[in-house]
Amino acid sequence: MAVQTSALNLGTPLVVSSTWRSRTLTVILMVAIAAVFWVDSRYPALMKRYHAGTQVKAVGALTFGAVYAVDRSMPYLTRVWRTTINWLDANRVGMTFSFLFGPAALAFLSTLRRRRTKSRYLNTLIGAAAGVPLGVCSNCIAPIARGLYASGMGTESVLATMFASPALNLVVLAMTFALFPLPIALLKLATVLFLILVFVPFISARQGETELPFNFAMEIPPAETWGQALSNTTRSYIGSFWTVFRVAFPLMILAALLGAFAVELLPQQALFGSVTLIGIVAVALVSAFLPVPMAFDVAIAYILMAKGVPLPYVAVILCTLGIISVYSLAVLGKSISWKIAGATYSVVVLLGIAAGLAVRTLG
Fold it and tell me: Could you give the number of structural domains in the chain?
């Protein structure tokens, strides 16, 4: 039986097998990786932050904790270096998961003959449903999204997964509604739903159908043995890992540096002045750029609100921070389209501006 392989035109051999043994092994691999991450790390950490309630704290500029203390009296480059290390340390578990799970998902999906339906809206819902339980931030979802797209999933499914994972996670939503006034929490939810249900199908339709090239065909015996299935799965996973890692890892290092450069440039009291249109626009532009961990957007927005930052600025941060980042946009641009990455950033910024203006106008 001829079995084809698809990749992001990178020359990576990804075995596509229709035999149930190979598919079973890739499912076991995905479940094992996800179970270890969810049970040992992600959901205990999220529940801890949820139960912290109004006592939630964030020590670093881009992280909940810090390996190195950062003080404004330090030289700028010292602060950038320390913030970069703090970010890499804070994301080490989530990134390890994404660099392992993304290739596993790619290996599994490559065993399926169909990875998308004819309906963009159904593909969008499938992507959102897959993203909700993942429990990874806008940074850690990027390598997984690259793997999904490399498998042949539609752009709308990939984008919906990217948005839903950090923003529609049930624990994060519970934190949002527990810490903020109901109108602000609903405004946050509305912007996320607009991105997934309106923007994603629209931008996917504008892109048109994209078919990934088939690089080669591999012959697999009709009656695949468990040994052959294990060999095929191993080769497929190694090829999938390289497809994800070779692009996502260098961009991760670059994103950590860019995020640190940006956040350490911000004046310490920038958000405590009177609310202006220019201020709302500036907050939206910076907030949508910064790479932050899971639930950090909710926590930092609440902390700033408690410290007296005007509510319009808080609303902008809540609606723009954490759903995308310079890292997810870079991987999106490199994997799918820089136009889509630019459009995504622009729409998130515009939604943040609209949220800030709405709060300022309605009081």
Answer: 1
Model pTM score: 0.89
Q: Is 301 exposed, middle or buried (0-12, 13-18, 19+ CB in 10 A)?
A: buried
Q: What number of H helices and E strands is found in the chain?
A: 16, 2
Tens of pLDDT, residue by residue over 84-135, are 999 999 999 999 999 999 999 998 988 887 778 889 999 999 999 999 999 9
Is residue 211 classed as helix, strand or coil in its secondary structure?
A: coil
Sequence-ordered alpha helix ranges (H) in 41-181: 43-52, 76-90, 92-109, 120-131, 141-151, 155-167, 170-179
Domain that holds residue 90: 2-362
DSSP string of 233-302, one letter each residue: HHHHHHHHHHHHHHHHHHHHHHHHHHHHHHHHHS-TTGGGS---HHHHHHHHHHHTT----TTHHHHHHH
Counting every residue written for the chain, the total comes to 363
For residue 202, which amino acid is it? Answer: F
Nearest to 99 by CA among 233, 238, 5: 238
| 3: phi then psi, degrees, rounded to nearest 5 | -120, 125
**211 backbone dihedrals φ, ψ, rounded to 5°:** -110, 125
